[in-house]
Task: structure prediction
Amino acid sequence: MHAIWHLFEIIYLTTVAPGLSTSIVPYFMEWLNINFPAPSADEGRRIAEGSPTADELAKRDGLWSYLKKLAIRGHVSILANMLEKLGHSQLLSAAAARWASTISEISRKMPLGSNEETTGSFNARWKRWNEEVRNTATAVKGLLSSDKKSKDLALESLFTIVEILRGDVDTISAESDLWQDIIGAVMLYSEPTAQAGRLPSLVNVVVEQYESDAFTELDRALVALLNHDLPEFLPLCSHIDHWLSAHIADLMEHITIMDICKKVFAVNPREHYILALCETYLGHENLWRVGLDYLGMCKTRAGISVMEEYAMRIPLDSDRKAEQVLRVCDKYKLKTAYDRIHRQLGRQKWQRGRLGAAIGHFSKVGDNSSISMVCDQLWSEYLGSGNLTYGPVIDGVLATGLKHDRVLFLSKYRDFHECYKSAEHVQAGKILLSILVSEIAPLHA
Amino acid sequence: MSTLQVQPVARKVTALRWLPPHGGSAYTDTELHFVTGSSGKHKELVLWTTPNPDFSNTSESNSDIKTNALATVISKIPHDGDVQKIVSLSSGVLATASSFGTVSIYSVDTETNAKMDNKGAVGLRESVAAHKFCNGEAAVATSLAVQPAGSNNDVEMASCGEDGRVSYINASRPDALQSYEVDSTVVTDICWPTAAQVAISTRGGQLKLFDRRSPNTIAAVFVDPSASYAFESINVHPSQSHRLVTGTNTGAVLLWDVRNPRKPTNENFNVHEGNVWQVAFDPKDATRIVSCSEDASMAVTQWVPEGSIGGGATALGVAPEKTRGVRRLSSMFNALSINCFDACPFTRTNLLIAGSDSGNLLMEKGVNSAFGDF
Result:
């Protein structure tokens, strides 16, 4: 996944800055070496371990394939060092030893671009170097014996290395393990100033040689990306991982290359992929909050409506969780969800006998009829038992400054009784009068 | 904004507590222990160990366990329900409040080398159902607090729950619990200002005090008339029992002085942007209030008590060193709510740990940096 992300960055972000026409080649080689490292560090250690003498080195197994891999990946300085060492070995034929040193020198001379140099002068240097490599190659080829019995392995391998350095596509294709290697080496050794636009044609040529069955999802996605075929690229990403497709779609939207895709897809692709990602989070017991935040980032109407639906369906296991969900509703202004949740909580508390809390919830959404029903229940409990126990229930609600006729009535009635009990008859009388005057008493009381 | 160190633990951490060290003081312990409780998909108690910052290990170059981890797991045990709160009853015994309304007592063994054998370091002793609604459903036990200065064998705890009740549980006879209805809304947090007094905070925005000897009657009720809050948490000053601090659902931390029950005073510090889930006075310096919040940050608020410059200091003409201010702590690796924290009272270096919904353990060691303005 990192490979895809990195490549996307290279193609679209690093080299497309306006005004700079930088070559994609050094970044590509960097990408290749970071994401598909070769030759492996173990191999390198095995071959170069213990500072061997030239003879020991020449005898090491796998030496030549290691050197060829170094050449393909552009590790020219290491290649040069090793060849120089080898040049002193007695085990190699005289020709091989001589050419090893020559090739090592040539590798060292490989021009590397820099920011200060103009493209023109770099190209001139490159041409000169390439000439030199070609001459060396021709010379070595001449030395190779066509007699099958006396094959000088060292010389043959050296020839292959020189051919790679020359940028010969066939040799490179033959020696590479991965298709990405071929593209990298071809660009490095024959078109060092290639731009990102060159990639599609190269890719197609290389990929033709491989059967499509052998490609993994990752390979297909990378090919699509190199081809600048974004509508193909996005669905492949979503097969690999939803996080990847959501974030890539978002990035594309930000750097405004999404427009190509919009014409191809029936729905807004960014929204689609973010929604796909959210589905995985919203079902998760711990990550629902993350899912909701992603939906918030979606910033489209569809996103908001999905968020409302989800917010209403999150299981409210505890008071704290309910608080958290309500916070989210506040943050994203989800009025319907807020309303529903409070009503749901109100009903839940009512069932559990927490009448004060129930009234509190209903009052937050202005559900006066439910409040009246709860008050009726309190009143009928009082009438049934003769004990005025609803006092504390009402107190909690009154502290929030709720103005509701029934609640007001219950509280005044309670005050009336308390005044009566404590023999403050005048005060009691006044309260009774206010109850009758304001007509808040229920008719059947 | 100071940065907290983060260790991902793949659990939503909703409760944590430092365990008292062997022998009562941490001056000789190189390792400290704490317990975390988690909720959601994995409900369990985990025992951790972390190196004591008072013993800095600069000479340790050959340790074979070179990790960047802040703490290491010693053992785990599943827990029945989300862990809402953990309290330490005595050395080797702790109690938890669960979302299934039960209060459970566990024994913890940190002395024998439990690293060899993962089982057995934390074990359940007994469990009692402390909270339920009148229709029989279990109610979430939202918090738990231990009576201060109780004798070791007869420690009492008080738990509060969504059923609006407070239950008093004796650690040695948990079955004989007593439960009283104290509020019509949810009781969010509880603490003991003195051994005979209990204070609760409610979702209705009330702070109520009770006398333990007559638990049915409310001794005092305080509200903040200037705003309609809901209180999420409450805690008491370590030595002045008339000073309480509450956290609200809007991000404010209120510092109360309830010496005069008819005229309680409170001071409002708006330090957070979301519900303040937990507040506490720093055990080493009670002029600091630590709080954690839904907005994924923690705050250390320095308040100056009135009269702190009185007495000897003005006589000598010494200016007070402490000025008001707030220091905020957060981490860019932690985006979701910080649910709980505990400041270690046993070490000389300041050591603060916290747990969050992002599945992280957060830590801050020994900083005495400057405080900013509110």
